[in-house]
Every structure is written in C-alpha cells, then in structure tokens.
Amino acid sequence: MLTVLSKLSWFFRQEWKRYTIAVILLVISGILEIIPPMLVGRSIDAINVGGMNWESIRLTIVQLLTITAAAYLINFTWHYKLFGGAFVVERLMRSRLMRHFLRMTPTFYERNRTGDLMALATNDLQAVSQTAGFGILTFMDSTLWMATLLVTMTVFVSWKLTLAAILPLPIMAILVSIYGKWIHKRFMDAQDAFGSMNDGVLETISGIRVIRAYVQERAAESKFAAVTKDVLDKNIAVVRIDALFEPTMKILTGASYLIGLGYGAYLVYHNELTIGGLVAFNVYLGMLIWPMFAIGELINIMQRGNASLDRVGTTLGWKPDVAEPDGKAAAKVGEEPGAIEFRGVTFRYPSSSVDNLQDVTFKLKPGQTLGIAGRTGSGKTTLIKQLLREYPGGEGQITISGTAIDTINADLLKSWYGYVPQEQFLFSRTVRANILFGSRSGNATEEELLQAISSSVLEGDLQFLPKGLETTVGEKGVSLSGGQKQRVSIARALIADPHILMLDDALSAVDARTEAIIVDNIRKTRAGKTTLIATHRLSAIQEADWIVVLDEGRIAEQGTHEQLLSLGGWYKEQYERQQVDANRSEGGEL
C-alpha cells in the first residue's frame, strides 16, 4: 500500500494544498459523525432516570441539526477536493504518456503493441485515478476514522466491550493481505489481455478490406471471440477474488456485532454499562462496519493501482534510442541546410541480423536532386530514414553543412524536411485540413494552398469529391484512392516549402503521365532546393542531378542518367524495360 502511495508522491507534493484540505476536512467530518450517537446515548440515559425535559430535547435537536448542516458543507468540500484530484492525476499522466509517445522512435512502437498502449491510456490510468481518489478515502477511513471510532468506543463507552468486539480484526487483516496479492497478479493478467483485445480490434478495423476480400469474416469473428473469452476469463478471475472481500467482511463484522450485543448485555446486567452506552456502542459498531469494509476496498484499489502504475512506469521508463544532443553539445548551424554527405555509412535495424546499408558514400550539393533506385528491399527507404534519425546511427557519418546530423538539434533538423513516406497516413479530417497540417506556421495562405494542390496535380480530383476541399476523407483516408492519398500527402509536404524534400516511392500509385507532371512541377517550384526521390519508376528520376542505385544495401551504380545508361548495368536494363512497357501501354497493348 505504501509502495503505490510513494509512486504517486510527486503528485501529492504538487497538489499538497488540495489533499491537505481534503484530509483535514475528512478528520473533522469524522469527529462530527461521532457526536450524534453520544448525544443520543446520553438522552436515552436521561430518559431512563427521568431527567429529560423539553428544554434538553430542544437543545439536543438544535445540536443535531447544526452538526448535520456543518457535516453537509464539510463533506461536499472534501469530496470536491479529493475526487477532483483524482481527475487531475489522470489528466497529468495521460498528458505525460502522450508526450512520451511523441518522443519515442519507431523501435518503441515495433516492440509495443498499439492495443497495449491504448490500454495504458484508458484502463490503467483509470485505476491510477481511483487510487488517488477513492483509494485515499478508503485509506483515511480504514486508518484515522477507524482509530477515532475505536478510541471513542474505548474511552467514552467501555474498553472491555471494545476489546472484545475487535477480536475478528486480526483475522481480517491476514485475509485481505492474501487477497491483495492475488488481486495484483490477476489484474496484471487482465490488463495484458485487454491490451491484446484492443490490438486485435485495431488490426481488424484497419484490415477490413483485406478480410472481406479473402472472405475471412467468420474466421475474424471466431478469433475475436477467442480473444474476448480470454479477456472475460481473466476479468472473472479478478472478480472471483473481489467477491471474496464482501462475504469475508460481513462474516467478521457479524461476529463483532454478536460479541458486542452478547457481551454488552452482560455488562449492562452487571451495571458496568448503561443502556444508553450500549445503544451508542452499537451505533458506533455499525459505523465501524464501513472502515472494516474499507480495509478490503483499500487493498483491492491499491493493488490495482500498483499494478497499473507498474505498467505505466515501465512504458514511461523507455528511453529514446536516438539521443538528442543537449544545449551545450548541439552544433551551431545556419537556418538553411547546405550540402548533404554520406561518408561510409553502414547501418543495421535493431531487429535485423544483417547490415541494411553498407559503406554508402555520396555527396549532394544544396539545390540538387538525388534519385535513389534499386530492387525491392535494396535499402532505398532505409537510406532516407538515415536523414530522419529514426534509428540509432551505425558506422560512418552523415553530415549537413559539414555538421554531423546527430549533433544538430532534432527540431531544427526536422524543420528543414518535407517527407512523404511509402505508406501515406491521412487524418480523419477534411482534405483542406490534411494539406494544411504540413504548414508548420499554421497560417498558410489560400494562394499557397492552391499552389500545393496544383503542383501535386490534385485539383482535377477535387471536383469529383462531394464537398471538394471540405470533404472528410475518413480515418487513414479510406474514402480516397491510393493515387489521391499520395497526392494529398505530396501537397501536404509541398505547402511547407521545405529546404529538403524526401519522396519515398511517393508516386507509385499514380499513372506515368501524372507522375511526369508532378515531377516537372516539383522541379520548377523547388528550383534551388534539395530533393531526394526514391522510386521504382526510373522516369521519375532521369532528370535528377545524381542517381544512386542500391543493391542489398550497397551502392551498385551511381552517376547521372546518361552515365548510368552508358554503364550498361541494372539501371540501363531496368530503364529500357520500363520504356518498352510504357510504349505498349500508350499503344493500347497489355
């Protein structure tokens, strides 16, 4: 229990005023609740001896009404402060998780399932929130409130009766400790299963077209049914332990009642306790039931919160595998990038057993266009990702303006880039919003928007969309064709007018004629700025200033278009084959 509170100590220090007020008011509320039974007991004793009159009755009623009104205001305030803090910690930790997710590199997402990350941001944070709210309430009620009741019962009623009535408490403490350990393990398993289910739902929704195309709907249903059955079984295992708490508490509190009533009657019979004292004691014993229940609830909530905090803490403990240079180590470079140079770069993905790039060396001057060609899996995308610094660097060095990129501030470095990956991602927003997302300033003019649309040859398609630029494209752009998604992505990159534009096979879904227009537009609008184009279609890079041909991560050929044709290697062979295919397509032959 203390472990989970220590893990949240940073939050309690931050919100110490809120929790100080809540705890003080909880204590005052507890004291106020103790007074009415005492007044009732004294009134009964006064009636029993014939000393009760209307004046004392009115005074008792006024006292009870005053205490009730004060308790109402105090309970409202502590409830607002305490449970308001629970929502605050949930918001803070959710924001911290999101910041962490945004800092993480692809390696993190390769090793953590999306469903598990969603479970962290939902179920686990709700469990942490309960710990900071209801958990603190049960902690106070099962400690201070219970101690206050026991002291009152001991001092103002009968220490003998109190001692006898609390005999079941040690048994309760042992049982809830055992239950707590079981809850922790089973709740961890249940949360893991919930993450797996989330991941399965995401995969099914994302791949619904493929599932339907292969008529795998029933198989997907069966698989999901098995996953949900696993989630159900593991949550039932948690509930099974939860269900032990209440009957255990009832049996032990019932035992306390029996002891209190039986032994209390004995003490009254022997004139060691008044009837009013016995009535007050039984009221206090009834009030003691919740603190006894609170012990079980406390262990339950704290164990759930501890399990969730462990899961969240493990995720937050991940360190980005690409180090960010600190302020002193960060190199001082100009606002605009200069030449890009690869010097003997060898790189291997963390999950790979072989080098994915080997001894790659070339230099690209400012304003030049680099074409990157090669077979599928030859390393084209990997080469571009080296500039993005998504993975730890390997051997060799990559420099911009003569400065190693791992010493350049990441925000500055990425502010130079415009990047269109192989797999385009569009947000579930309008076409306009998706394109304007690329404008880092956020205030691109209508003229700049139209220019980006024109350069990406998208204007012709807009007239066929229901609302043109205001058409909502759907999550991941499901309502657009592959070529339309690529052109929206290109427009998004162009509107930023980046110093360095990287197109990673970004024209594969458009026809050859549209591709030629887009490439020509990019060449005209980006005169004097650096562009890297990775492609299978060599017509897209034949006008490039320099072309590198990759084969199994090595540069097999490099040079201008004419130089590569004269070499008579893979580039020439592939170019001629593509030219023949293009001519056949134009002639109507298939």
Automatic annotation (TrEMBL):
Residues 340-577 form the ABC transporter domain. Residues 21-304 form the ABC transmembrane type-1 domain. It comes from the Bacteria. GO terms for cellular component: plasma membrane. CDD domains: ABC_6TM_TmrB_like. Pfam families: ABC_membrane (PF00664), ABC_tran (PF00005). PROSITE patterns: ABC_TM1F, ABC_TRANSPORTER_1, ABC_TRANSPORTER_2. The keyword Transmembrane applies. It is a multi-pass membrane protein. GO terms for molecular function: ABC-type oligopeptide transporter activity; ATP binding; ATP hydrolysis activity. Keywords: ATP-binding, Cell membrane, Membrane, Nucleotide-binding, Transmembrane, Transmembrane helix, Transport. It is found in: Cell membrane. The chain crosses the membrane at residues 21-40, 60-89, 134-157, 163-180, 275-295. This is ATP-binding cassette domain-containing protein. It comes from Paenibacillus ginsengarvi.
